Amino acid sequence: MAFKIYTKTGDKGETGLFGGKRLPKYDQRIEAYGTVDEVNAFIGLVRDSLQNAEVRDFLKEVQDRLFTIGANLASDPEKDMATPDLLESDVVALEKYMDSMDESLPTLKNFILPGGHPTVSYCHIARTICRRAERQVVALAVNEPVEEIIMIYLNRLSDYLFVLSRKIAQDLNVPEVSWHARK
Fold first, then answer.
1. Which domain holds residue 31?
2. Which residues of the chain have pLDDT under 70?
3. Could you say which DSSP state residue 75 is in?
4. What is this structure's pTM?
């Protein structure tokens, strides 16, 4: 028999965690891993919009790490279950790539508005969704156990996406859209 994507078990507004526990779909845990899934989808869009193989490969690694985070958040914290690991080296990799990109970027003198090119905008959308995912995970951590490395990774990832948006603009030779306060 073929696997079916629909189970009908969520038709009444609940969903299951790995481990079997059922939660309402508006639960903070569901919001957190759902938002992580959303940023992952937008990173896929950014990845599909780029020609640079090294950046595409790294974004695939980022998507793998986001799936790791999603699996961790989608697991019942009351059960002792094996979940994929997120490592300090994953955070260090984001920092390394940011530092490398920063070397060729002009000094930031203004706030940058999303825009200038569709790929730059996609990157900014991914960044803002990542920030929302981080806020959701931080809110979840107030009442439930969440590995600190998850919050750190999401924070660093949003920074990486900002720097990547600037690097993409530079590589595409499009000017950054600076914000200037009305006087």
1. 26-74+113-175
2. 1, 3-26, 77-79, 81-84
3. B
4. 0.88
